[in-house]
Amino acid sequence: MKIxxxxxxxxxxxxxxxxxxxxxxxxxxxxxxxxxxxxxxxQAEIDYPxxxxxxxxxxxxxxxxxxxxxxxQPTTVFNGFGGELQNAYDWDSDRYGGPxxxxxxxxxxxxxxxxxxxxxxxxxxxxxxxxxxENLWDPAFLRHLKMLExxxxxVVCGDFNxxxxxxxxxxxxxxxxxAGFTExxxxxxxxxxxxxxxxxxxYFNPTLQRYTWWSHWSHCRERNIGWRIDYxxxxxxxxxxxxxxxxxxxxxxxxxxxxxxxLDF
Length: 265
Prior knowledge:
By secondary structure, the chain is α+β, with helices and mostly antiparallel strands. It has one domain (about 1-265): 4-Layer Sandwich (Deoxyribonuclease I, Chain A), CATH 3.60.10.
C-alpha cells in the first residue's frame, strides 16, 4: 500500500499546471492526502474515477483545507476533532478565523489502521498563532491520535509547519525563535515521538538532510535551502509493516514536495 502526502498550495493551481495529473500517472498512489487545497468540492476539475474523493474544506474561501483521494473504501470518515476535544479547549477565533473551521483534519478508518491527514496551523511570521499551536492545537491533536490508538494503530501525515531538529532545515542557527523552528513548535513534534509515534523518514535515515518545503525567495529550491516540515508518523506497532519512507523532492508543482510511505499488509 503506497500512501502519499502533498501540500499542493492550491489544488486548482497544481491541476492547471498539469502537475497533479503527472504525479498520479507516474506514482499511482493507493491513497493521496493533500493539504492547503484552497478549494471546495466542485471548484476544481478532477477526473480520477479510480479514486474516492473526500474533502474537508475551510469555510473561508481560498484558504487552508485538506482532501484525500483513496482507492480503498474507508469504513468510517470524520473531519475535525470529535466533540470531546472541541469541548475540552477554548477554541476562540483569532484574526485569521476559527481553527476548527479551516478544514485541517481528516480521519479515515481502514481495517488495519486509522489514517489522519493534517494541515497544522502556521504560527505566522510574527508568531501571532504560536500560542494557538502550543496551548491548543498540538495538545488536542496528540490527544486525538492517542484516543484513536486505543482502538487500532494510527498513520498520520501532512504538513506540520515545523522542523523537528537542526537536521530538518538548512540554516538552523539563522532560524532559532523564528516561525517553524521555535522551541514550542519543536516540542509539539517531540511530544508526538515521545508518545510513541515514529518519524518514518528518520527511522530509515537517522542523519540524512532532505527537505520538503522551500521558500519562493532567493531561488531557495534551486539552491536546496529548505525545511523538512512534511511528515509521516506511525504507531510503533506498524513498524513491522513499514517498507519505505521517501521524500520526492524531484516532483514540482508546489513549494512543497510529496512524501510517502509504503506499508505491506
